[in-house]
User: What shape does this take?
Amino acid sequence: MTEIADYHDYIEQWRRERLTGLKQKGGWLSLVGRWPLDAGTVSIGSSDENDIVLPIGPGKLGALTLVEGKGLTFLHEGGSEQRFIPADSPYPVVFPVDRFNFEVTSMSGALALRVRDLESDEPEKLEALPYFPADPSWRIRAEWVALAEPGEVTLDTVIGVKTQVPVSHVARFDHDGKTVELLSTYGTAERPQFVFRDSTAKDETYAAARFVFGEEVTGDAITLDFNKAINPPCAFTEFAACPLPPEQNILSFPVRAGEKRVRS
Assistant: This one.
């Protein structure tokens, strides 16, 4: 594991970069809604006459049509712009419309429309995030262990939609004399993501889960820095659909490192 000369300064810099990322225009704080999409046509705009009513923007923005087996077509109001999204398109699909980014997502085959307001002032309202004091002992070099039988696990989400996630490795380390094995369920080979919950979720951290990302991955080792444990997007907006942790990633002990709860 790489030695860091001034660890506390290093974490402070990481926290500043984390806050800057969250405050970017078009980020999670810019979401204004999420709507499931079924076969048929829905009108979109800020007027109450629309099927999907946006909180801001033109009264009539356009219409989105879903034809099962074929895909989605978006027609801008007045017919000035049309987009086609094939049924086999890799999701999410993002495209600009007026002051918004439209984002078509797929979860277990169910499509939904998320809308981000690129002119939103919500990101600038976010103040410094609450953290536990930086503790170098929570920067852990763990074993990176391949599963005997890689496969898939079923995870629930905060919106109640179950998803199938491929799994291949666990990060194994000791804590207070007991072996912990965290299952990686998202991310990339270079930056595996771990969705976990610990006993601080009762009153100190976000109740659903937190995320931590692996670093310095080799064939048999991985670094987990829990001082970089973060709140998932759903801690900041009701319009995200975040995963819940697999059962083995629900820890009975407290991990007093990383981000604390941002709202009650």
